[in-house]
Design goal:
19% strand, 405 residues, Aminopeptidase, alpha+beta, three-stranded antiparallel β-sheet, single chain
């Protein structure tokens, strides 16, 4: 214990970081296993990185990863699984009862949601789900993402000559502009975690014609699924206002929705212990609240849906950016992600995630603790309390780093 000075407990630097010096029980075995695979994983990494493919069309990545898994003793590989050409499952059966862990990657377009709906997680009785995502932000165990819904909006009016007889027309573009302006007014009274985005994809064809058709793409995000549902009602009212004001007919078509990601703090604590002892000075704060604040992003991912179905961890890790300092969804970052430095940092993450899995598989009572925490978190999340500090041997495989939208 440190000295007491002016009612404060003063501790030295070593005491402050004592948590990272306590070696996790499976560290040496996990580290040796991942290091032993590194030479084989680097060509796999390069093959996928150097041959970029669109979502649901990752033929090269699918072939590369399934071939790699088939080369490892004890693994049973199922290519093109659950009705998805580039999804795959790799199973290692210990022939003993115990927890089941899934390591997810994501292809974009809600791939994990499709797997949830197809029964992939249920069929294999998955208990927890682990994944990671690279970026240029601070390393974190408790990444929390935003709930997200995307949709297209169309207005249908009636054409007329804009100079000769405009009164005979119904202006669909006016309806869309009215709604767009209403959204701008709405933003004044939204909460800090609320995001409304949109673009007009069709604003008519000629200036001298009353526009019979107008359309746009829109996205709404919020801290939690419960808050998103509240905000979406207000957004819907803005679009209905455009139709009411002009007489145009409104059509809204949902395109994609993701739940917010609810990180499991018990899993996060384990991940942090492994990660921090592996390779300082890049450390994750030991305090859960600070870690979660650093890991908060308004980006979205389908791992959020998984986190509502089971305990989940979506760790974030930093890699050096390119000269412009740009993060994901930028050509510079894509190049940076293929470097040896980025690969080496991902190995550290792999060790920490593996450590989490091994601890859950081997420590009696740990899975129950994880699931109890998850139940509390999901219950808290459904209450939509913005003041709350947090709302509280299987690989189900796909072929890309996790993708935020």
């Amino acid at each position: 214990m440190g000295d007491i000075v002016d009612d404060f407990v003063v501790i030295n630097h070593d005491e402050a970081n004592s948590a990272i010096k306590h070696e996790p029980p499976n560290l040496s075995n996990v580290s040796a296993m991942v290091d032993g695979l590194a030479a084989d994983l680097w060509p796999v990494n390069k093959m996928i990185h150097d041959n970029p493919e669109l979502g649901f069309q990752e033929v090269i990545a699918h072939q590369t990863l399934t071939s790699f898994m088939r080369s490892k003793t004890g693994w049973k590989v199922f290519p093109s699984a659950y009705g998805m050409a580039t999804a795959w499952v790799a199973e290692f059966d210990t022939r003993r009862k115990g927890p089941v862990v899934s390591f997810n990657v994501e292809m974009g377009g809600g791939g994990k949601i499709k797997l949830l709906e197809a029964g992939a997680y249920k069929d294999h009785e998955v208990d927890i789900s682990l994944m990671s995502h690279p970026g240029i932000v601070s390393d974190c165990a408790l990444m929390r993402t935003a709930a997200y819904t995307a949709f297209t909006v169309e207005y249908f009016g009636r054409e007329a000559h804009a100079a000769a007889n405009p009164w005979q027309g119904i202006n669909a573009l006016d309806a869309l502009i009215t709604a767009y302006n209403a959204l701008s007014v709405l933003r004044q009274q939204t909460m800090p975690g609320d995001v409304i985005q949109g673009n007009i994809t069709n604003g008519g064809v000629r200036p001298n014609v009353i526009h019979a058709y107008a359309a746009g793409n829109f996205v709404v995000r919020a801290d939690t699924q419960a808050r998103l549902e509240e905000l979406k009602k207000k957004v819907d009212a803005c679009f209905q206002a455009g139709a009411t004001a002009t007489g145009a007919k409104l059509k809204v078509t949902p395109t994609q929705s993701y739940a917010d990601h609810v990180p499991n703090r018990v899993l996060g604590d384990i991940y942090r212990r492994y990660f921090n002892i592996l390779s300082p000075p890049h450390l994750i704060p030991e305090d859960d609240d600070i870690d979660e604040i650093r890991g908060r992003t308004m980006a979205s991912t389908d791992q959020g849906n998984v986190s509502y179905a089971m305990p989940s961890l979506h760790a974030g890790f930093s890699i050096p950016p390119g000269p412009g300092g740009n993060g994901p969804h930028n050509p510079e970052f894509a190049e940076a992600a293929g470097t040896k430095v980025a690969f080496e940092r991902s190995l550290r993450v792999a060790k920490a995630l593996t450590g989490v899995a091994v601890d859950v598989l081997s420590q009696n009572g740990l899975l129950e603790k994880v699931k109890n925490e998850w139940k509390r978190d999901i219950q808290q999340s459904s209450k939509n309390d913005p003041a709350a500090p947090h709302q509280r041997n299987l690989g189900v495989g796909m072929n890309r780093f996790g993708t935020f939208v």
